[in-house]
Amino acid sequence: MQAVLEQKRKPDVSGVSSHEGKHLTFALCGEEYGIEILKVREIIGIMNITPVPQTPSHIKGVINLRGKVIPVIDLRSKFGFQEAAHTKETCIIVVEVQHLLTGVIVDTVSEVLDVKSEELEASPHFGNGVNTEMFLGMAKIKDKVKILLDIDKVLGTEDINAIESLAS
Questions:
Q1: Mean pLDDT, to the nearest integer, of 59-78?
Q2: Confidence band, pLDDT 50/70/90 cuts, at residue 117
Q3: Angle value at C-alpha 149, between 145 and 150, nearest 5 degrees
């Protein structure tokens, strides 16, 4: 009986344990998030973004990165957070999503963390109104929680279609 109770108390991490490894962490509205380091191509300072008409408001436009046109998405806007003025710490993280390079604007880049399986926990259920598919899980590190994002799902099909049209 005790073994059954212990089994029920353990969080289900079978799906999240495969997400252990290195994650680039960044701040957004004072909270810490992480992206799998293998998705990150580079980190650049904020630069001139050329707006593109008739795109969703969170797609800020495109940048010219060494001769390549890269679409840029503001994660604050994408997540429904209040927009803030860019500072010298504001960065664009260039990620590869479905073989496309895309820039995501974040408040500041923090560090690269090596997340271990015992530090991972599945995303809690917030009810039907909250899409938790974009979360790989929650990393509990030094009494803080960092939300690990699945960048492929953060930039869903609608965004990918818009990005493809901008990149072509």
A1: 94
A2: confident
A3: 150
* 149 touches 138 (CB < 8 A): no
119: helix, coil or strand? helix
Half-sphere exposure of 34 (CA within 13 A, CB side): 27
pLDDT value of residue 20: 82
CA-CA-CA-CA torsion sign (42, 46, 50, 56) = positive
Q: Which residues contact 144 (CB under 8 A, 6 or more apart)?
A: 32
Q: Are 90 and 106 in contact (CB under 8 A)?
A: yes
Residue type (1 letter), 74: D
pLDDT at residue 12 above 60? no
Collapse the DSSP code of 167 into the 3-class scheme (helix H, G, I; strand E, B; otherwise coil) and give the result: helix
Question: 51: helix, coil or strand?
Answer: coil
CA torsion angle for 30, 98, 42, 69 (degrees, to 10)? -110
